[in-house]
């Protein structure tokens, strides 16, 4: 970002850009306009880390970057989900300054940041870029990959997700298909096709090497250093696959491309007819047969269309022969019609896939139209391109200066008008009725007898006195216009034909007779009004001329009216691409080259008005709604009008030196960019702080809840564990006690057993002694008895008292 206090003049701006460029800082803000100086070398500044870094950040809070613009546009689109908040990124700059690369980078950013990155539509929109580049870009002296058509890309969002896209193309440069200046190439796709197709398919389409084709070899060198056509052909095929092209469609595309090449090699021999009339013969009919075979049309029909023409006079159809120039023109016109039909079909086909009728959703549009051109030889195409750039520049000025100053007057703001170079007179010179150059051209195009020179005469006659117009000193067929970006000399050769952009009826008939739908449908749409009569006739109407289209509504033609019509609802973001040198050399900053671009793009005036003006305008209620956070709620009296609240907020929120940075109008508050940035920055800080507080409480609550849960679980675990441990201990103790009891009881029993055993033994001993005694007694008694028997006392009765004593004795012994 350029420092606020820098004294802005040409030198300081130029020098600042240089210092930054030397430090490899290619992006610089001047206000909210992003200046991008082409590095011609890839830096590692577009990775996902950078996408994340810039996501949701306000412009100006991080170093300048294309992603910051993408991020700001995306945030706005997400904030409101409808078309009321449409954003448009207007990328301008001269050829080779990096518009197309920037477009792709913004698109890549949107694809990466959108909330469904694996979205198929997103991938298809991304893949449309290499496809259209193959068919619409070519090598020019200024740019090896120059877009030869204008592109307006709309990306539709719903809830922050890409839901569709739409490509609108403008003014494909048709002359390139048949002629290229030295050092230039035809459209990339031809070289890619010849380099990438395998031999079998080359045979199928009858193809040779690029240097064998007149339509490809006029520039001298068919190769571009650093470009691999084979690889790019593979990328093209994969893009077609992602976009759902069928193999028949691919085959048709290759057939049309091949037939254009074959047609280019058709040559003619001059011949004189009997009445001195010029005529031609086809030199070799091999190419004609190839083209007829590939396009599925009659070969004789092609020969007829290229060598004769049908004219109608007094309801009679006359066949006249063409001279060699006319025959060559017919051939080229045929090839151009084929290719341009193919290109229109491709864009329609891509839209058919990616455009889902999503009109009501919010959109980010990116405008990438060809840059201002000033070649050694400039023709009708350059006039169209430069006129488109004049319009773009006019709208830029209108947005930045005119409308802004008108708004200040309406809102009664104190303001001293800033002057700027208005390019409206140039636009009038080119397109104002009735004698604007394009009107003159259109009138001449309707005169059958008119020629390019008669058109030039009319231009000289009507504009010779204008200081924006110049006649050549020598007698050459040229005129010059002083454009906003410098004077350009235009050679009028071919102006009328190119403007008519018509095909002879015979050629239209021929194309419509093709069995290939792309040929007959697109021809019908482009070259006929109403259905083409199947019966050959030379009097059907041709469609409007290019100049008429351009004059009618240039804004609509370039899609830019959408941007400015809704001003200020539709929010434009400007990216100004700068080419640092004319040699396409990396990191080489050529001061005069950059200075010229800064001058003609009105960069300084733009910065001046951005800095001194009030580019930010918000309705009071909107302002209060957005910035009331900046002051305590108690300072804002309830029920006070919004304007009063605005005043309070600004007095309190803006510093003393910033008090001159705003004004209150009748219905809006007007802010300078620097104050808006400060307010936005402070608002972001407060919101961030508030968000952090909310996060803190939420996190505290969550952490507490988690802690309590964990604590409860821990206590439970502890309880269970302790229970288990105590249980285990108890079990062990119980086992030990049981064991002790067992041992004790065992011991006790053993003791008792021993006592009993001893007693039993004693008793047994006693019994045995008793028994022995009894036995001894018995023996003694028997002896006595034996003895008494002799005396006869054996049978004496024992007296009762004695028996009792005996019995007692016995018991004791027991
Ligand atoms: N941001 C970038 N980083 C690296 N190289 C870049 C960048 N931008 C542009 N270039 C280089 O500059 C070349 C030209 O850029 P680009 O094709 O975008 O120009 P352009 O403005 O679209 O030109 P034209 O009007 O001719 O289409 C690219 O091929 C690329 O090599
Ligand atoms: Mg480009």
Describe the structure.
The chain is of the alpha+beta class. Among the domains are: 24-113 and 567-613, 3-Layer(aba) Sandwich (Kinesin); 395-493, Methane Monooxygenase Hydroxylase, Chain G, domain 1; 616-679, Alpha-Beta Plaits (2-Layer Sandwich). Helices cover 55% and strands 12% of the residues. It contains 30 helices and 19 strands. The strands form six sheets. The chain has a seven-stranded mixed beta sheet, with helices on both faces. Strands 13-14-15 form a three-stranded antiparallel beta sheet. A hairpin with a 2-residue loop joins strand 10 (308-313) and strand 11. Helix 5 crosses helix 10 (229-242) and helix 11 (247-264) packs antiparallel against helix 12. Residues 1-7, 529-544 and 553-568 have low confidence and may be disordered. It binds adenosine-5'-triphosphate and magnesium ion (MG). Adenosine-5'-triphosphate binds at residues 38-42, 93, 95-101, 143, 145-147, 370-371, 577.
């Amino acid at each position: 970002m350029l420092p606020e206090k820098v004294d802005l003049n040409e030198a300081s701006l130029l020098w600042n850009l240089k210092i930054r460029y030397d430090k490899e800082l290619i992006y610089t803000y001047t206000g909210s306009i992003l200046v991008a100086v082409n590095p011609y070398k890839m830096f590692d500044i577009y990775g996902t880390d950078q996408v994340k870094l810039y996501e949701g950040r306000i412009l100006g809070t991080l170093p300048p970057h294309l992603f910051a613009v993408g991020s700001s546009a995306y945030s706005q689109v997400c904030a409101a989900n409808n078309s009321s908040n449409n954003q448009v990124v207007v990328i301008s700059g001269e050829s080779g300054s990096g518009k197309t690369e920037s477009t792709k980078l913004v698109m890549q950013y949107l694809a990466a940041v959108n909330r469904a990155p694996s979205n198929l539509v997103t991938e298809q929109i991304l893949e449309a870029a290499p496809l259209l580049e193959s068919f619409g870009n070519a090598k020019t002296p200024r740019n090896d990959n120059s877009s030869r058509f204008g592109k307006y890309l709309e990306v539709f969002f719903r809830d922050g997700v890409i839901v569709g896209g739409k490509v609108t193309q403008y003014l494909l440069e048709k002359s390139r298909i048949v002629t290229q200046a030295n050092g230039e190439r035809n459209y990339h796709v031809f070289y890619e096709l010849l380099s990438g197709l395998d031999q079998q398919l080359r045979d199928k389409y009858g193809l040779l090497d690029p240097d064998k084709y007149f339509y490809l070899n006029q520039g001298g060198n068919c190769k571009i250093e650093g470009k691999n056509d084979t690889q790019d052909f593979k990328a093209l095929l994969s893009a077609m696959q992602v976009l759902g092209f069928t193999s028949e469609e691919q085959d048709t595309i290759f057939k049309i491309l091949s037939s254009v090449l074959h047609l280019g090699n058709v040559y003619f021999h001059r011949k004189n007819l009997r009445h001195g009339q010029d005529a031609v013969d086809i030199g070799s009919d091999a190419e004609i047969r190839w083209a007829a075979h590939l396009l599925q049309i009659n070969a004789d029909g092609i020969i007829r269309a290229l060598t004769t023409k049908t004219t109608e006079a007094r309801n009679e159809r006359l066949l006249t022969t063409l001279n060699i120039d006319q025959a060559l023109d017919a051939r080229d016109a045929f090839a151009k019609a084929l290719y341009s039909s193919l290109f229109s079909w491709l864009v329609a086909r891509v839209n058919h896939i990616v455009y889902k009728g999503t009109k009501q959703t919010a959109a980010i549009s990116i405008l990438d139209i060809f840059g201002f051109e000033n070649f050694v030889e400039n023709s009708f195409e350059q006039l169209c391109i430069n006129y488109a750039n004049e319009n773009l520049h006019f709208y830029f000025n209108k947005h930045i200066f005119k409308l802004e100053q008108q708004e200040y007057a309406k809102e009664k703001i104190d303001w001293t008008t800033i002057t700027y170079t208005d390019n409206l007179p140039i636009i009038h010179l080119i397109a104002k009725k009735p004698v604007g150059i394009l009107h003159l051209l259109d009138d001449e195009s309707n005169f059958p007898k008119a020629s390019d020179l008669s058109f030039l005469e009319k231009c000289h006659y009507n504009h010779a006195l204008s200081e924006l117009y110049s006649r050549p000193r020598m007698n050459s067929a040229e005129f010059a216009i002083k454009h906003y970006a410098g004077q350009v000399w235009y050679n009028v050769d071919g102006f009328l034909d190119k403007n008519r952009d018509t095909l002879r009826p015979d050629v239209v008939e021929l194309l419509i007779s093709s069995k290939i739908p792309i040929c007959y449908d697109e021809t019908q749409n482009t070259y006929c009004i109403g259905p083409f009569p199947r019966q050959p006739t030379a009097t059907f109407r041709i469609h409007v001329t290019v100049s008429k289209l351009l004059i009618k509504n240039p804004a609509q033609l370039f899609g830019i009216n959408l941007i400015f019509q809704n001003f200020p609802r539709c929010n434009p973001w400007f990216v100004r691409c700068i080419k640092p040198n004319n040699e396409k050399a990396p990191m080489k900053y050529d001061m005069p080259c950059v200075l010229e671009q800064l001058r003609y793009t009105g960069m300084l005036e733009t910065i001046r008005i951005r800095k001194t003006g009030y580019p930010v305008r918000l309705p009071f209620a909107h302002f209060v709604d957005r910035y009331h956070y900046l002051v305590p709620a108690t300072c804002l009296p309830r029920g006070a009008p919004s304007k009063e609240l605005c005043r309070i907020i600004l007095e309190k929120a803006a510093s003393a030196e910033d008090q001159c940075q705003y004004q209150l109008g009748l219905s809006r508050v007007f802010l300078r960019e620097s104050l808006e940035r400060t307010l936005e920055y402070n608002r972001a800080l407060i919101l961030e702080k508030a968000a952090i507080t909310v996060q803190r409480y939420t996190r505290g609550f969550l952490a507490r809840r988690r802690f309590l849960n964990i604590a409860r679980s821990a206590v439970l675990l502890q309880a269970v564990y302790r229970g288990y441990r105590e249980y285990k201990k108890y079990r062990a103790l119980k086992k030990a006690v049981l064991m002790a009891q067992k041992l004790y009881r065992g011991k006790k029993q053993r003791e008792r057993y021993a006592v009993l055993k001893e007693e039993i033994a004693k008793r047994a001993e006693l019994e045995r002694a008793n028994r022995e005694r009894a036995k001894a007694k018995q023996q003694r008694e028997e002896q006595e008895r034996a003895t008494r028997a002799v005396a006869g006392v054996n049978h004496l009765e024992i007296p009762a008292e004695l028996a009792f004593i005996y019995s007692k004795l016995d018991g004791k012994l027991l």
